[in-house]
Specification:
The protein is an alpha+beta fold. It has one domain: HIT family, subunit A (2-Layer Sandwich). It has three helices and five strands. Strands 1-2-3-5-4 form a five-stranded antiparallel beta sheet, with helices on one face. The longest helix is centred in the middle third of the chain and has 22 residues. The chain is globular and about 55 Å long. Bound molecules: adenosine monophosphate and zinc ion (ZN).
Length: 138
């Protein structure tokens, strides 16, 4: 499955070049062209799915079976002290390319890549209500 105007499908098919990091039958990994840190890598399924929850189980399995290996190599090569693995889904969450992808972002202390994590505390009873609502939809 591919989408003719999708930039990542074009990379998968070789119509657009990339700095390839890893490839198997189902998965491709390549350097992000506008990195937030050196070695910033994208891991994508070769088949076109827009969002994580739309991927069949076997596609998610194929990504998860190589993700750790790719992360290890990226982080070691970058000499990073840590990393984020990030999957943006939907415009509200910052997804700009509508082909599901996992960012691997090498991190170091004080690198200012993500400066704000807007955590707060639930008011009494709210966490229980939200958990119940989610469980009812599983
Ligand atoms: P997101 O905001 O999660 O959809 O991220 C999309 C990412 O794709 C951005 O970090 C872009 O820099 C990256 N990107 C877009 N076009 C290309 C391309 N041709 N090659 C590599 N990375 C790309
Ligand atoms: Zn695509």
């Amino acid at each position: 499955m591919s989408s003719s105007d999708c930039i990542f499908c074009k990379i998968v098919s070789g119509r657009v070049p990339c700095n390839k990091i890893y490839e198997d039958e189902q998965v491709l990994a390549f350097l992000d062209v506008r990195p937030v840190s050196d070695g910033h890598t994208l891991v994508v399924p070769k088949a076109h799915f827009e969002k994580l929850h739309q991927c069949p189980q076997e596609v998610l399995s194929s990504i998860s079976s190589c993700l750790g290996k790719i992360v290890q190599a990226v982080v070691a090569a970058a000499g990073a002290a840590g990393y984020n693995v990030l999957c943006n889904n939907g415009r509200a969450a910052g997804q700009l390319v509508d082909h599901v992808h996992f960012h691997i972002i090498p991190r170091n202390e004080g690198d200012n890549v993500f400066t704000h994590w807007p955590a707060y505390e639930y008011e009494s009873g709210r966490a229980d209500a939200i958990a119940e609502k989610i469980c009812a939809r599983l």
